[in-house]
Write a structure and sequence with these properties.
This protein has 383 residues and is of the alpha+beta class. It folds into 2 domains: 1-175, no CATH class; 182-331. The protein has helices spanning 14-45, 51-62, 76-93, 213-235, 246-278, 292-295, 302-308, 310-324, 369-378; strands at residues 2-11, 110-113, 120-122, 125-128, 132-137, 145-146, 154-161, 166-174, 182-191, 195-199, 206-207, 237-238, 241-242, 282-288, 327-331, 357-359, 366-368. Strands 2-7-8-1-5-4-3-6 form an 8-stranded antiparallel β-sheet. The longest helix is centred in the last third of the chain and has 33 residues, at 246-278.
Length: 383
């Protein structure tokens, strides 16, 4: 059994939307409270606070007259927010992430946790605790019924707001699709900036979505709005202080929505490319083990790499390979996929990055550089 992530759009009424905002605000309050309480505890006792102790203290706070409003939302929302803070703190101590920051109202992601057992799903509606039945766009992706009574397992359900719409995202258990794989087909994928992916068994590479007319038009619109905002800030400047007017807030809202639209288009394209590769049903998929975080340090290429979404592509390709039962392999970092001739196997050590066509000095074979790399990856460690 494996888990599949599902994201569904919600259509709340005005009253329900107020409750959703209140739930998200409570989660943010609990997270910030946990941060302040843990920092104070460490300063006083020179010890790290446990999650259990913090939760007990918050329960006492919740019963106080001053914080009666905390009882208007599900009790599990603030408890999970406290757990989220301590998980973020553990990641900091393991040197996986930075020190957890205060969640401001303006910059933090609007989201909250919902208990994974307190769902009731019927046709195009989902019942959330203390909020009620909300209409949703489902397309029969969620199993129907009372999740506690029917023992339907879901993982980490979160309700989020993306600046315009409300969504619920969760993971559900599913059985891996059993399909007949082509035991003779090994696929190599070479990622790049000019083209997103060159695949060994596809004649044409998958192009760069950022060069397409629709995306270029949106990026131009985004630049224009950003210039407008900067001019508005300069007009409303007083010494070293900047003042936000209603016009600035409107423009910033438009910029936020444009960023969301661009990220959705890019993510959708990555899904289309990865599923197209997986549906060819090879018995294995081979990719380079790219150090994306190190590549991002190149100031000339960092923007292009982030827009292409290499890390996300690898993540999607991994889980789609697992879904179809395909073996996923990442070649060694020092494997010379671009410098090796896919025809005779000789290595051209003096190959420059500017050379986009591969000419083999030994056998005279000529091929596109990226196509050559994808074929070498497809043949990686084959006897």
């Amino acid at each position: 059994m494996s888990y599949r992530a599902i994201k569904l759009k919600l259509f709340p009424t005005r009253e329900q939307e107020k409750l959703l905002w209140q739930s998200a605000g409570t989660a943010r309050f609990a997270y910030n409270w946990a941060k302040e309480f843990a920092d104070t505890y460490y300063r006083l006792y020179k010890k790290n606070l446990s999650t259990g102790k913090a939760r007990k203290h918050f329960t006492k706070l919740r019963n106080h007259k001053k914080y009666v409003w905390l009882k208007e939302v599900s009790s599990e929302i603030p408890q999970q927010a406290i757990k989220d803070y301590f998980e973020a703190l553990d990641k900091f101590f393991k040197k996986v992430a930075g020190y957890p920051r205060f969640k401001s109202r303006k910059r933090s992601v609007v989201s909250f946790y919902h208990s994974n057992a307190k769902f009731t799903v019927s046709d195009n509606t989902i019942k959330l605790e203390k909020i009620g039945e909300i209409r949703m766009k489902d397309d029969n992706r969620l199993p129907r019924g009372n999740y506690r009574r029917d023992k339907i397992k879901v993982c980490n359900p979160r309700v989020k707001h993306n600046g315009k719409y409300w969504y619920i995202s969760l993971c559900i258990e599913y059985e891996c699709e059993k399909c007949e794989l082509d035991k003779t087909l090994s696929v190599g994928i070479d990622l790049g900036i000019k083209d997103l992916a060159t695949v060994s068994n596809f004649e044409k590479p998958f192009g760069n979505i950022n060069k397409m007319q629709r995306v270029r038009r949106l990026k131009k619109q985004l630049r224009r709005l950003q210039h407008q905002v900067s001019r508005k800030y300069e007009q409303n400047r007083s010494g070293n202080k900047y003042f936000k007017t209603n016009n600035i807030l409107k423009l910033e809202r438009k910029i936020k929505l444009l960023h969301r639209k661009l990220s959705d288009i890019r993510l959708n394209y990555l899904h289309q490319v990865t599923i197209a590769i997986a549906k060819t049903k090879p018995y294995r998929i081979v990719m380079e083990d790219l150090n994306v975080s190190r590549m991002m340090k190149n100031k000339h290429l960092s923007k292009a790499i982030s827009e292409q979404g290499f890390a996300k592509f690898i993540e999607l390709m991994k889980y789609k390979a697992e879904r179809f039962g395909i073996e996923f392999i990442q070649a060694d970092k020092f494997f010379p996929s671009s410098k090796t001739c896919s025809h005779c196997g000789s290595i051209k050590k003096d190959l420059k990055l500017s050379e986009r066509t591969y000419h083999c000095p030994c056998c005279g074979f000529t091929i596109d550089r990226d196509k050559n790399a994808s074929i070498n990856l497809a043949n990686y460690k084959l006897a």
